[in-house]
Amino acid sequence: MDTESTLMITPSEVIEHLYCPRFTYFMNCLNIPQHEELRYKVLKGRKIHERKERENQDYLRKKIGCTSKAVSVYLASPRIRVRGIVDEVLELSDGTMAPLDYKYTEFSEYTYKTHKFQSVMYAMLIEEIYKKPVKKGFICYVKDGASLKEISYEPSDFEDAKALLSEIFDVISKGYYPKKTKFSNRCIDCCYRNICV
Fold this sequence. Notes:
alpha+beta; single chain; 5-stranded mixed beta sheet; globular; 197 residues
């Protein structure tokens, strides 16, 4: 399979779909951009990523068994039809690998579904490209300092991710208008609220 001709989506698009399935329709079927580059949180998050890239080049998180890392790694897999840039790809002392993602938000004991799915997508990409097992991932919440959360993966997480990808590609290939989110408060500042009926 060719990464240039195979339709692929990013983990960010998966998050948008989880937030509301109509994002997939508006972005991928109607090709209406959401102009997220104009949103404050997105701009702030990008600045944090750029700063962490510069500051953390040589820093290894030895407490979690990190022996080496690669920063801002572009990975693409036509087989699973996902592509994206992983903030850090870690090699761990037990021979496994793990994704690390920075989030410009406060730490919470609760793991958000969107954060977990994004981490699982990156894990799938790492396993596919590096041919090494990925049993866990990490999220670094930078708004309240730099709190690190470990996410352990279960086999069901990968099955759920594959089912979600199938659902997203179903919307894209068939061009059907999915039901909107059941959480109406998400519609308040949605960039598509004026055309979503």
